[in-house]
Amino acid sequence: MASVRLHGIKKNYGDNPVIKGIDLDIEDGRFVVFVGPSGCGKSTLLRIIAGLEDVTEGELEIGGVPSLGVDPSKRGIAMVFQSYALYPHMTVADNMGFALKLAKVPKEEIADRVRRAAEILQIAHLLERKPKALSGGQRQRVAIGRAIVRKPEVFLFDEPLSNLDAALRAQTRVELARLHRELATTMIYVTHDQVEAMTLGQKIVVFNGGRIEQVGTPFELYERPANLFVAGFLGSPRMNFLEASLVGERGAIATVRLAGGAQVEVAADATNAAVGAKVTLGVRPEHLRLQPPEAGEGGGIPGTVGLVEYLGDVTLAYVQVEGMPEMVAVKCNGGQPAPAMGARVLLAFEPQQAYLFGADGAAMPARERSARIPAAAY
Ligand SMILES: Nc1ncnc2c1ncn2[C@@H]1O[C@H](COP(=O)(O)OP(=O)(O)OP(=O)(O)O)[C@@H](O)[C@H]1O
């Protein structure tokens, strides 16, 4: 097991800066997920840790040892790729033991380590098969087994589940979490799938454009996104954003006016923003309630139901906000009657469940929400 420390890491491909200064501490034994949109540099960073890419600038320590320039085979890491990269002419057992054979580990020990890894992954009955006689999920387990037998200090996973169908992805996700509990080894996992990130990561690192947007537990990132990017990245459908201007603030409750004219309250400390400042109101689809328009007393955002999607457990209603171009997504409990298309409604929400972002995209702090963060995560 080992910690991983990145300091001031930059990487250019020619004139193109793809990693723009990364500082990150990964504690020993943690499961850390790198997540972000395509092209944000997360795979490049993983490959830098693995020693498959040079850096332009910066420092890397694995287990407290400066590791840039150290040969990949000497870094104590094992990497599992999206393409399983198994040797087709070798049996599962030979595939799993191949790196040990190259390292001249005695035969009996190789057989022993392969057998133990195969038991952990429940593929002991497949050891004599060739890869072509395996399903995609089984091949992926062999690829993971090949990493386990090397007893690495750090596992690196680069989108290992993307070639599996949805059901198998879900099952393998659960197995990876179990594997991490059993081995208690540091694992760094790259994905663009927010469900994988939320379910596997003890710590999630959200990347965008070669930079880190936020680091936190799944709970922290979902409940307390630092900015518009993180707020919009995690959650499906994503958080609704509505342009607004600040009317005033009292006792950490801000009042904002939407471009369409509606005035609503948000639990946010807007004392650093001027009255009239442009802000963005953010509300997650599950925090909105559809009310009849005559319920207007308590305030709300008037609109018209433009589209209804019945998904079984939930129904999604998309509401066209009055006087604004935006459609707002609302998650309605599947047990409730579906709202009618074309119905006029008021969108209501609790001030504590909404967010306010300044003109620079940063979230304004909210005392009430912070209090809901549990002390110990995971
Ligand atoms: N060998 C290379 N030469 C030049 N540019 C590269 C090279 N490898 C990656 N890039 C560029 O670096 C950027 C980051 O790529 P990277 O693969 O790290 O992104 P990613 O976040 O992992 O995306 P994806 O999820 O699509 O794999 C991209 O713009 C990519 O085009």
Automatic annotation (TrEMBL):
GTP-binding keyword on record: no
Domain of life of the organism encoding this protein: Bacteria
SMART domains assigned to the protein according to its UniProt record, in alphabetical order: AAA
InterPro entries: AAA+_ATPase, ABC_transporter-like_ATP-bd, ABC_transporter-like_CS, ABC_transpr_MalK-like, ABC_transpr_MalK/UgpC-like, Mo/tungstate-bd_C_term_dom, NA-bd_OB-fold, P-loop_NTPase
Domain ABC transporter, chain residue ranges per copy: 4-234
Gene3D superfamilies, per database record: 2.40.50.100, Nucleic acid-binding proteins, P-loop containing nucleotide triphosphate hydrolases
Keyword terms, alphabetized: ATP-binding, Cell membrane, Membrane, Nucleotide-binding, Transport
One Gene Ontology MF term: ATP binding
Pfam families: ABC_tran, TOBE_2
Protein name as annotated: Sn-glycerol-3-phosphate ABC transporter ATP-binding protein UgpC
Taxonomic source organism: Massilia norwichensis
Lineage of the species this protein comes from: Bacteria, Pseudomonadati, Pseudomonadota, Betaproteobacteria, Burkholderiales
